[in-house]
Amino acid sequence: MSYAVDLDAGDYDPAKPGTSLALVYLQHAERDEQDVNGDKLRGQNDVNTDVAIFRLVRYVQIAGLTVAPQVLVPVIAQRGLGDRASIGRNTGLGDIILAAPVWLVNRTQTNTYFGVTPYLYLPTGDYDPNRAFNAGEDRWKLNLQAAGTVRVAPKLAWDAGADITFYGKTGKSFAGGRMTQKVGYQVQSSLRNFVSDQFDLRGGVSHAEGGDWTQNALINRGFTQTKFWIGTAVKPSASTQSFWRSAAISMCAMATRRMGALTCGC
């Protein structure tokens, strides 16, 4: 399951109103621990996850503020390794996400930006209560994020953000019985080094605290997760942009090391 909204470096660098974006994010994550109520399970409890997110964005201006309505479509592949190999693997369509960041600070002269974003998760993802791995969560979610970026040096940008997630109840067919969950939180930060106008190197860290969850009248401790990641981003050239009308394509590939584990599925 996904419990918070990962902030990619540069997400809060707005484009001009009228711009359309088509983006692809690729992420590989490795989890090497599993905790149950704060106790680490023995053995090799590895889970690897590969995620591709297809994102369409349109920048507009409303009441003098830049707004970017968008849709994100994730495709998720998960597999167990070591002592968890027996739970198998699964690939499927994740829950579709609708979002609309609003920039409250938009200072292009100094590359200083700050905005807030609501993310609405629709329960459209692939879900089967008989599987250990599922791309969908079988529930609605609402995440509220506040984040920004500032140029700390001519070739170095700092991004930081925090978010809070509200969870709906799972469906009646949810594995193990219907589940409710308290509010979750996440804070994250990253740095970008601009090698050129089209290419940058980036890295970041985030820490998330999932809310306690209740299932069959049993209260279970929420998860704790810390992540470190590194990656690159490539912006298109002017000739590539001519394929789209006021458009850009960005690709970000990240190798992620995740520490901590989920206490309610994967």
From TrEMBL:
InterPro entries named in the record: FApF (IPR025737)
Species this chain originates from: Novosphingobium fluoreni
Lineage: Bacteria, Pseudomonadati, Pseudomonadota, Alphaproteobacteria, Sphingomonadales
Highest rank taxon of the organism: Bacteria
Name of the featured protein: Transporter
Pfam families: Phenol_MetA_deg
